[in-house]
Fold:
Amino acid sequence: MPLRIEDYAIIGDTHTAALVGRDGSIDWLCLPRFDSPSTFGALLGTEDNGRWLVAPSDPGATSSRAYVADTFVLVTRWVTPTGEVEVTDLMPHGDRRADVIRRVRGISGSVVMHVDLRIRFGYSDALPWIRQIPEKGGPTLVAIAGPDAVVVRGPALTASEHSHTTEFTVEAGKTVNMTLTWYPAHRAAPARLPVAARIRTTTKWWQGWASASQPSAVYAGPVRRSLLVLRALTHEDTGGIVAAATTSLPEQFGGERNWDYRYVWLRDASLTLHVLLDHGFIEEADAWRNWLLRAIAGDPADVQIMYGLSGERRLEEWTVGSLPGYDGAGPVRAGNGAYTQFQGDVFGEVMIALQAARVTGKHESDFSWPLQRSLMSFVEENWKRADNGIWEIRGPKKQFTHSKVMLWAAFDCAVRAVRDFGLDGPVARWESIRDEIGGEIEAKGFDRNRNTYTQYFGGSGVDASLLQLAQVGYIAADDPRMLGTVAAIERELLEGGLLLRYRTETGVDGLPAGENPFLACSFWLVEQYARSGRLSDATVLMDRLVGFANDVGLLSEEYDIEHGRQAGNTPQALTHLALVRAADAIAAAGATDLTVPAIS
Structure:
């Protein structure tokens, strides 16, 4: 049985990421990219689905862990009756190759360490051919299956029933290095890594990146770690940010709400651009803008809500039968069928992000503004369409109020591009359509009897996405209509003090009812509280939310209040984005004396 989701930390090289458990086992790793098939898949099954355990042999050993400050270099300290050791785990950055380093260093006394390596390529569907080969520098193991190969270097391993194990003793002051390197099976194994040098350069790179950020006035530790998470989830070569490092971690334990989040959503890309600009990452924001422009280039009718890391368009969803699922929660999915959906809100999010870039001084190129004009031409013809909404509803399409507001925002940004920045466009027509959309929203998406906006036109329920109406400037945060909407959201969607996205029992999403509160939505509520004068409520909720982060500052998609545990894919970009925005809103509201313990 896998550990709790919060018991995992990530290490990464900005091309992929591994999940390392408190027990010293790497239970999830896809090589060489985030969206590659897994090499270690125990997270979604058992150890026989692939893992790499490095831990003391003593079952009573205890551990504590932390990242080296402002990095994803993970240091776990193990204490046993006979001594103490540190295990340093990282994926080195900058080599343009896929490596994992695991360094064991003796602190005091002596400790017997146990290694259990089980390599399973192709989502545990391919048991590799493994052989020991002679190599200058020490024992070497090579595993090959189909297109994939890894070379493992370190203490000699003994084969036993499809696993390779060993034990070795580490004394105070002594160091044992282990490395694993992926490479295409048709090529020769890469050379050995200079382990100490790669630890130093990787630490320096992460800390150098973090030092460029503009510090947050409040919740500085959680904000800094969240920004680092966003960087860790960003593919260095393409600029695409995956929504999470995992697939199929359940939103409802034991249920079927298990989705693959290892792709790039335009929504997340746009929100990331905003956050990076707000915190001083101008170059990264420019790379993000370029990714967005490349992704949406072409016929606007072909714009998708999500893409692969390099802009791949076909993300067919299929069931991975070789993995049983996290604690049996199936099916495990690869790909995401929502890529074919029409979600009108993404046009607004893209235009808002590109408007933010203009405000910070990014000039439009001969390519970027014509592309935006082309997008707006498409939106002019399609804004009246029903869609699947922000939550990728798999039931019947509807006229979702949030989607209409984001389409309103798309036209508003286009108008401001002309009015404020002198760009060329049919501004009078855009203003007219913007106002027409606003009229539709007020006439069909606002319930005057209850003084609240509704989830969709003609509906009676509410949706947490309505909190974004004030965020995008459609309405003031303290407008009576917005305050009425917040009150309705509090009445209908708060569960244990946290927000659900919507009521799944209505059947609107076409799936069985049941879901845990969605953390990003609760951070949106913090932002709304702060912007509408409820600063005390904002800080109380914010304190609780950041308290759900695990010991190394990571948050997943949802939180199971009943059992006090994280749920859904992890670490979740949207959650960490919303955390940063919430902290910024609290700071803007005048809070200056909040202190939260820094997270390394």
User: Anything to note?
Assistant: The mean pLDDT is 94. The two ends are 29 Å apart (CA to CA).
